[in-house]
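Example for tutorial group B:
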């Protein structure tokens, strides 16, 4: 866990949202469309991540002298965030299922119709050589847009700062219509899956280039990949 542990509700919220739910989403990929009992998966993950003593720590309720165990608070926030962030579909009775790509895209694209741009442009995805993984595992990927037609120039412009430790590598470039709405749809879909990175830099997601490409092609089948 990268978030320093503390016995507080704010810690549970942040840990559940930014670290535990993405790990649960990876585990439940194997279920496909089959329902699963979320609490069984989360209990196992909590036991692997925290000591029994940490989970037994008690936290005071807001505006009350009553207290709750950390495990109980996790038990509330994990399903609450899973449903409200649209990571999973709540079937009731503690049962959840993965949200299909079609449902994710429909919601993300509906949210994107308010974007004030219908122009064509370029969607690009890049990362850095030392963090790219070739074994299918997720790694940090930046997803952005440009209307200049030159993705490489845009990426190099972003990376001309002291925060970048090596030259970037462009993983994918697509020519699309409604470029701003397209970018918003990709971001919204990945964020709904719990992949958005909690970091100072915007538009970074823990994903793979294959996942990004599948979202691009589903939203806009006419999107044209640009060879490099």
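The residue assignment follows.
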């Amino acid at each position: 866990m990268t978030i320093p542990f503390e016995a507080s509700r704010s810690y549970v919220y942040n840990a559940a949202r930014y670290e535990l739910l993405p790990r649960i989403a990876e585990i439940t990929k194997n279920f496909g469309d089959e329902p699963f009992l979320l609490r069984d998966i989360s209990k196992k993950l909590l036991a692997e991540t925290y000591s029994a003593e940490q989970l037994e720590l008690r936290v005071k309720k807001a505006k009350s002298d009553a207290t709750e165990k950390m495990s109980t608070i996790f038990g509330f926030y994990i399903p609450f965030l899973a449903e409200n962030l649209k990571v999973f579909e709540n079937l009731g009775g503690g049962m959840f299922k993965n949200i299909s790509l079609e449902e994710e895209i429909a919601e993300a694209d509906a949210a994107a119709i308010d974007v004030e741009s219908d122009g064509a442009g370029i969607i690009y995805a890049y990362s850095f050589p030392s963090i790219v993984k070739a074994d299918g595992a997720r790694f940090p990927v930046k997803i952005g847009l440009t209307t200049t037609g030159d993705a490489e120039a845009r990426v190099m412009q972003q990376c001309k700062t002291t925060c970048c430790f090596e030259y970037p590598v462009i993983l994918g470039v697509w020519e699309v219509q409604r470029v701003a709405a397209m970018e918003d749809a990709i971001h919204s879909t990945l964020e709904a899956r719990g992949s958005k990175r909690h970091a100072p830099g915007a538009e970074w997601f823990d994903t793979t280039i294959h996942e990004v490409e599948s979202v691009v092609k589903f939203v806009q089948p006419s999107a044209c990949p640009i060879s490099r």
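The longest strand covers residues 139-146. Compare this with the pattern of hydrophobic and polar residues in the output above.
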